[in-house]
Amino acid sequence: MTDVANRAGVSPVTVSRALRHPEMVSEELLKRVNDAVQKLNYIPNHLASALASTRTQIVGVIVPSLTNGVFDDYLGAIQDVLNPAGIQVLVTNVRYSEIEEEKAIQTMLGYHPEAMIVTGVDQTERSTSLLRNAGVPIVQTMDVAGAPIDMNIGLDHIMAGYAATKYLYDLGHRLIAHLTARGDPRARRRHAGYQKAMDELGLSSQGLVAGSARPSDVEMGGTLLSEVLANVGRVDAIFTCNDDLALGALFECHRRGISVPEDVAIVGFNDLDFCGATVPPLTSVSTERRRMGTWAAEAILEIIRGNGRRPKQMRVDVGWVIKERGSSGKPRRRADQVSTGVSPDMAHSDHEPS
Amino acid sequence: MTDVANRAGVSPVTVSRALRHPEMVSEELLKRVNDAVQKLNYIPNHLASALASTRTQIVGVIVPSLTNGVFDDYLGAIQDVLNPAGIQVLVTNVRYSEIEEEKAIQTMLGYHPEAMIVTGVDQTERSTSLLRNAGVPIVQTMDVAGAPIDMNIGLDHIMAGYAATKYLYDLGHRLIAHLTARGDPRARRRHAGYQKAMDELGLSSQGLVAGSARPSDVEMGGTLLSEVLANVGRVDAIFTCNDDLALGALFECHRRGISVPEDVAIVGFNDLDFCGATVPPLTSVSTERRRMGTWAAEAILEIIRGNGRRPKQMRVDVGWVIKERGSSGKPRRRADQVSTGVSPDMAHSDHEPS
DNA sequence: GCAAGCAATGAAAGCGCTTTCATCAAGCGC
DNA sequence: GCGCTTGATGAAAGCGCTTTCATTGCTTGC
After folding, report:
1. Radius of gyration (C-alpha) of chain B in whole angstroms
2. Cβ of A107 and B91 within 8 Å?
3. Torsion angle (degrees, nearest 10) of CA B279, B163, B331, A254
4. What pTM was estimated for this model as a whole?
5. Which among B53, B52, B13, B45 is positioned nearest to B29, based on CA atoms?
6. B14, B31, B194, B312: which could form a disulfide with B178 (CB 3.0–4.6 Å)?
7. How confident is residue B352, by pLDDT bands cut at 50, 70 and 90?
């Protein structure tokens, strides 16, 4: 910075001002400084800047996965809001590991982010305490918490799992299987929702559920379906914890000559892009990933730019929508979308699922 | 830090040493300090630490996409090497935009990373100059450069595209279509390889190529195939610039009652996980994503931990492998893998594709 | 025409650490 | 016992910025 100052014939402090608060500096100096910056290819040391100003312009984001198309949309939305505001997003992928998450949070706090966005509401006690004591806005996303650390936007996965199952039941299916992969907490809740529905509907799920401890992939969808079929011979319908498994199950049906949806209906979860492109197109429970990211980022921006004024609404349930497509049989309602919902304790939400 | 020092009854400098160089401090003090750190939930300010020591422990990684399963493996590999070494990986997704990349590089350099890993070899002049002048190790990955900025690990996409096309030709196909999405430079090279093969084989590609400016997704595979079929009526084989398009094309074939591989052969690119799980399984050109990430990270680690000693080998061609599966017809060779290669100017590489 | 006010710039202090350098006590050989 | 080394600790300086606070030269209003 001193070099730039010398070249522009001003003091270093003026350079700092020209860069940070251009309105405090005369037009002419501003130009001289900018020229010098150009010539010398000067890049301010962000670390020193952050240290001196105690504004790091960093927001930390923890995601449990990147393979998953889900988090790409979500991250993209966050960046779209934060980057234009000059805020750098620090992403850490903790691969569905609570202990990696704990470490990641600790490491991130060492960078003194101005806010943190974490996925899910199932942080360990230590993670929670770290976040709570960080003294910065925290947003938990993707799931709804009874007692959020700070702000919270998400949806109720138990209800969503319940609704998907009930949807298949209403279509006339009784032997409804559930396939699930590595048990991230939200997938487990969807499973719980399935189980709740089966119980309430008086159906046994005996032999109809298959799960794996490994992270999900398409192939696993086939494997898990095969497992269920080995148990129970046949099924009417399949609800999977995500779209990859649904796709795998769909292929397994092709392989076995089982017609979808005539013999078996399939419902996935997340409504990734490819769901509309399969044969038949996959019915899936659609979640508003981008909206969760956008909301989280905007809430944070409002707080850190708006003198700590907090948004009036600290909790949002974005709900879900069952996108009905060919894999679950002919739509029997007029619309493409059926069965949406927000969790009851958030019915005050100003934003119903659209 | 002062608080910790007070609580432990030592000077701040001792705390710093206990944390940074535990071997320089007596056992007893070390314990006292660690206890105090625990009690106070002290997290060192990484910014101050980096500023004072001029070791940021940061490595910057630029990726053009996250949707893509490709970059997840690659990033995971990089983190697996760097995180255990106490290095934080700063990731920026530049969404296939050169201008976003330029900005991202500039921003990252403000954090004074100890090394940078960038995807591809097609940086703008300004990006190149920024990287060159950063004074830290740079690795370009995924592609091979004639004149790399610094280190380089990748593969020759022209040759890979050529080989995939030639492979289909050798299977007896003549009407070989090529589907390609948003033109990232590597996809364009694969296209160029396809074109080169067609030219050399004396085949016309008239009407057989369809592309889109949008980022690829599964649905687009179907759309592009439809476009080609509208042009030319029928095709023998399809080579796509990635697996998403291959999957989409496969579904489009199902939809149209075209048998794969009897009527049409399909070859994708990248060999993502799902290729083995489709019906029929997709033949795809497999690339060593994890290995590229691992190599880049290890090369960097060696330099920044090993007193700047540079690895003997600065350029590596990892080649590719055509994973032959059902979608391209019966394997006519004994092995699952055929046609591999490294680019000729790197034939000296000590590591042939395995 | 002069004090008050203001805009533009610079000097100095300090953000929270690490690192060099100095200090001090203990251990050692002769 | 004296000078030496050695290991452990502390004091001070400084990393590259930003932010108060002080200074300077001007414009104002009456």
Report:
1. 25
2. no
3. 0
4. 0.90
5. B13
6. B194
7. very low
